[in-house]
Specification:
It contains 18 helices and 2 strands. By secondary structure, the chain is an all-alpha fold. It has a two-stranded antiparallel ribbon with strand order 1-2.
Length: 394
């Protein structure tokens, strides 16, 4: 979409308020709708990249772009505007609200004969379903996208924040992990990482590093997590990715804590959480609070770990981040056992962790809950009354 260079220099946003254009007169011309659309879409992309997907200014730009897309009957840029809104809602609001926009994107792309847009719609659906804890459906949409991409002839658009197919590979991998397909998870994750590097897509590479590190945390591999965290921090520092920098910092903290350096680890995690909160993002925060809780537990600060996990549960329930429900209940049981809490509370948390894992068909989370519960029962059989248990985190 061409924009006259001289006219472009005359455009400002009102006092730095994204979404409020100020037009300086230029030979009596007003800014055409297609140029206004360009002005909104490009800052939206820039703000999302540098300030993070929870940047409210980016949302404003994409919301202002939507009616212009309708007036110009531009389906491709309408897709971009809706995806920008979806990303913001996904990271700052309830997942049911994000699903509503994802479904709008899907409806739009069904009306177009564009494989790239279809993959983008499947990306939105698979990601939202993953966060809602519907791992089977999330995998189905992600793999549909992968199949389209492997058929060939799919391009990427410059206005995309991430390459959609890389996202789909990453989400497919995480869904596979939950469903117990561990080897396939690693294969798909590696394919997504390699593709992001081949396409030189730094944002998608950051997403791949984050999720690969998450998988390594699930496998209790602090050495691998530390290496991936360093890569993510270096990438984020080089490209001014403030959001991903906070994530890398928290992963580094978890790796330190899991390696026995709990004081340093907790400090890194707390620094990362502070930065994460300041970004305006809430999606993912319950998970990162659970990493802080684990670090506190390893530092023999179980009461504080319980406080952190209670906050994580409250946020996860409020924003419908169901993918972490089972994990949080299992950890809560571990921390309750450590402080010698009422047996009924401990049993209830374990049972809820198991119930949710089974309901979500998360084989991996179910196995972890079963193993930790079995260890609790074993220790309880030989423990004296009021004894505090030391249960494993994995």
């Amino acid at each position: 979409m061409p924009l006259k260079p001289l006219l472009y220099r005359e455009i400002q946003f009102e006092h730095g308020r994204w979404g409020s254009l100020v037009e300086t007169a230029f030979e009596g011309q007003s800014l055409p709708a297609e140029d206004q659309l360009f002005i909104y879409v490009q800052p939206g992309l820039y703000l999302t990249t540098t300030r993070g997907v929870g940047a409210a200014e980016a949302r404003i730009c994409y919301e202002r772009a939507e009616p212009l897309c309708h007036s110009l009957n531009d389906a491709r840029l309408l897709y971009v505007a809706l995806m920008g809104q979806w990303r913001y809602i996904l990271m700052t609001d309830k997942q049911s609200a994000a699903m509503q926009i994802a479904e709008r994107v899907h409806t739009l792309t069904q009306q177009q004969n564009d494989a790239t847009l279809t993959i983008g719609a499947y990306r939105a659906l698979s990601c939202t379903l993953l966060l809602l804890g519907d791992f089977e459906s999330g995998l189905q949409y992600a793999m549909r996208a992968v199949q389209i991409w492997r058929s060939g002839g799919v391009q990427s658009y410059a206005e995309e924040h991430y390459t959609p197919i890389v996202n789909c590979m990453i989400y497919a991998a995480m869904c596979k992990w939950h469903l117990g397909e561990i080897v396939s998870c690693h294969t798909m994750m590696g394919e997504g990482m390699s593709l992001a590097k081949r396409l030189n897509d730094k944002n998608s590479l950051a997403l791949a590093l984050q999720n690969t590190a998450t998988a390594a945390i699930n496998e209790r591999d602090p050495g691998k997590v530390k290496r991936l965290a360093s890569e993510l921090i270096e990438l984020s520092t080089r490209h001014n990715f403030s959001f991903w920098l906070t994530v890398g910092t928290m992963f580094r903290g978890w790796a330190c804590s899991a390696s026995g350096e709990t004081v340093e680890g907790i400090a890194w995690i707390e620094q990362g959480i502070k930065g994460f909160r300041s970004s305006g993002t809430v999606t993912g925060l319950p998970y990162f609070l659970s990493l802080k809780a684990e670090a506190l537990y390893l530092a023999e600060r179980a009461p504080e770990a319980l406080d952190a996990i209670n906050e994580a549960q409250s946020l996860a329930e409020r924003y419908e981040q169901r993918y972490v429900f089972s994990r949080l209940h299992r950890l809560r049981a571990v921390f309750l056992a450590a402080i010698g809490a009422d047996e009924a509370q401990i049993e209830a948390s374990f049972c809820e962790a198991l119930r949710i894992a089974k309901e979500q068909k998360s084989v991996s989370l179910e196995k972890r809950a079963e193993a930790t519960y079995a260890e609790y029962r074993r220790q309880k059989a030989s423990a004296s009354e009021g004894h505090g248990f030391r249960l494993p985190l994995c």
